[in-house]
């Protein structure tokens, strides 16, 4: 049972499409932002803009904050554009979830700060093993420093335990409610994403955006790397083993 849900469906009702397809896929993203409420509001305003200018709707069904709070935005039986596949049949059979997470970081030259996707500087307050504690304005986040870089970076925003707990409970409920298969790709977080046509046509299970996006660049220029991968959610520090074990997922 989920008790920490905030219902925004009335707000999003006319900014979503009715599904004609049976729900088969749970599609995971992360926001690349600082706060789950600002992320939801940003996407809402983008959807309004797209609706007015292009008659096209973007959005996701759920958002999960770092404290485990769930925003229920688009009804499960509906959908909006989110996967960048431009495939109506695929999109309409997905239930999409955004995890509040900033993504990748890098050190500044002094090594006293981390710099985020938006070139904001985070003061490093403490370090413990591979864990970095850093702050920016009112935000105090934990980051993980990896021994080996992934898609050009080796520091990533840590997904929180309350957030992952809420995600697992939500996904388990959705799997049961819609008869979605407990399947997941062996290469769920690929270094270089290659879209398998099987996912678009016949797959039932759990996917994430980094399986769909990621064109490798051999440039060492920071901006070239950013442009090649955009935000590449989910990131490599997503606790995939815990996720698979607690949901009894089968690798394919």
Structure report:
There is one protein chain. A hairpin with a 2-residue loop joins β12 and β13. The chain has a 6-stranded mixed β-sheet, with helices on both faces. Strands 8-9-10-11-12-13 form a 6-stranded antiparallel barrel. It has helices spanning 9-12, 36-54, 88-92, 161-178, 197-201, 222-229, 240-247; strands at residues 5-7, 17-18, 25-30, 62-64, 70-72, 78-79, 94-99, 104-107, 113-115, 121-128, 131-136, 139-150, 153-157, 183-184, 205-208, 250-251. The protein folds into 2 domains: 5-101 and 159-251, Lysozyme-like (3-Layer(aba) Sandwich), CATH 3.40.80; 104-157. It is of the alpha/beta class and 252 residues long. The longest helix has 19 residues, at 36-54.
Helices and strands, with pairings:
Layout: E1 5-7, H1 9-12, E2 17-18, E3 25-30, H2 36-54, E4 62-64, E5 70-72, E6 78-79, H3 88-92, E7 94-99, E8 104-107, E9 113-115, E10 121-128, E11 131-136, E12 139-150, E13 153-157, H4 161-178, E14 183-184, H5 197-201, E15 205-208, H6 222-229, H7 240-247, E16 250-251
Parallel strand pairs: 1-5, 3-7, 3-15, 4-7, 14-16
Antiparallel strand pairs: 2-6, 4-5, 8-9, 8-13, 9-10, 10-11, 11-12, 12-13
């Amino acid at each position: 049972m989920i008790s920490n849900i905030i219902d925004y469906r009335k707000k999003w009702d006319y900014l979503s499409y009715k599904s004609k397809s049976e729900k088969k896929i749970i599609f995971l993203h992360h926001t690349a932002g600082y706060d789950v409420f600002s992320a939801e509001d940003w996407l809402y305003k983008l959807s309004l803009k797209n609706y007015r200018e292009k008659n096209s709707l973007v959005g996701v069904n759920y958002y999960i904050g770092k404290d485990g709070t769930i925003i229920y935005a688009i009804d499960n039986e509906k959908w909006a554009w989110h996967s960048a596949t431009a495939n109506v049949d695929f999109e309409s059979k997905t239930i999409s979830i955004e995890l509040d997470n900033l993504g990748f970081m890098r050190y500044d030259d002094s090594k006293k700060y981390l710099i985020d996707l938006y070139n904001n500087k985070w003061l490093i307050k403490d370090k413990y093993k591979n864990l970095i504690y850093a702050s920016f304005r009112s935000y105090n986040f934990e980051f993980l420093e990896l021994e080996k870089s992934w898609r050009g970076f080796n520091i990533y925003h840590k997904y929180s335990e309350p957030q992952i707990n809420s995600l697992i409970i939500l996904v388990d409920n959705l799997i049961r409610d819609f008869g979605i298969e407990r399947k997941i790709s062996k290469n769920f977080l690929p270094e270089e994403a290659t879209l398998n046509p099987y996912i678009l046509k016949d797959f039932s299970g759990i996917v994430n955006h980094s399986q769909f996006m990621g064109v490798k660049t051999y440039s060492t220029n920071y901006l070239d790397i950013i442009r090649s991968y955009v935000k590449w959610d989910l990131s490599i520090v997503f606790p995939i083993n815990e996720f698979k074990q607690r949901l009894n997922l089968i690798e394919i």
